[in-house]
Amino acid sequence: MSAEDLAGRIEQALAERQIDFTRKEESGRDSAHFVVELPGEKKLKTVALLSVGEHGVRVEAFVCRHADENHEGVYRYLLRRNRRLYGVAYTLDDAGDIYLTGRFAVETFDDAELDRVLGQVLEAADADFNVLLELGFSESIRREFDWRVARGESLANLVPFQHLLPEFPQD
Predict the structure, then answer these.
(1) Are 113 and 88 in contact (CB under 8 A)?
(2) Sign, CA torsion 144/148/149/150
(3) Contacts of residue 71, Cβ cutoff 8 Å, sequence gap at least 6
(4) Buried b (16+ CB within 10 A) or exposed e, 116-142
(5) DSSP state for residue 148 in the 8-state scheme
(6) How far apart are CA 132 and CA 27, in angstroms?
(7) What is the DSSP letter of 164?
(8) How far is Cα 171 from Cα 158, in angstroms, rounded to an integer?
(9) Residue 8, C-beta contacts closer than 8 angstroms, at least 6 positions apart
(10) d(CA 171, CA 169)
(11) Which are the contacts of 91, defined by CB distance < 8 A and separation ≥ 6?
């Protein structure tokens, strides 16, 4: 199958599944790029980029910015998590931001593979998001909590981290 045929099939599959996406045409060696928005629960939205080239499809999804603290703990978690992921792996960019990336041969990338890969990206980004925040941003969470309490702001989005905050109101 040609890269252009595969790009058409990916577009059709995304539309059939009612997944929000934008298609960008040829850029460099790639015949098409798809910016896909995957809705989550803990991480409200994961944006994935599918780049279809002559020989393969590249998947890349931003998960979290670089950790403020506990880098060793964050990296250990990511490396251990990589052992259980299908088709993608955690990687870092030059700034240390955390991504999920993968590459697939054009010949093997069909609708079922698209489902598996996007499902894995969503599951990993969503399931690991709060863990990564807890490991790499606990001081920021503490400061956010203190700021919200001092100003009488809602603590709703800090509920998943209440175990880190002993003075969290138990209503």
Answers:
(1) no
(2) positive
(3) 136
(4) ebbebbbebbbebbebbbbbbbbeebe
(5) H
(6) 33
(7) G
(8) 14
(9) none
(10) 6
(11) 98, 99, 100, 101
Q: If you write DSSP's letter for every residue of 23-55 in order, what string do you get?
A: EEEEETTEEEEEEEEEE-SSSSEEEEEEEEESS
**Contact residues for 57 (Cβ-Cβ < 8 A; gap 6+):** 6, 10, 50, 51, 103, 104, 106, 109
For the chain, list the domains and their CATH numbers: 3-136 (3.30.1460.10), 138-171 (no CATH)
Give 112-171 pLDDT, tens digit per residue: 999 999 999 999 999 999 999 999 999 999 999 999 999 999 999 899 999 999 888 876
The structure's pTM equals 0.89
154-166 as b/e, with b when 16 or more CB fall inside 10 Å?
Answer: ebeebeebeeebe
CA-wise closest residue to 7 among 24, 19, 98, 87: 24
Angle between helices 138-151 and 111-136 (to 10 degrees): 70
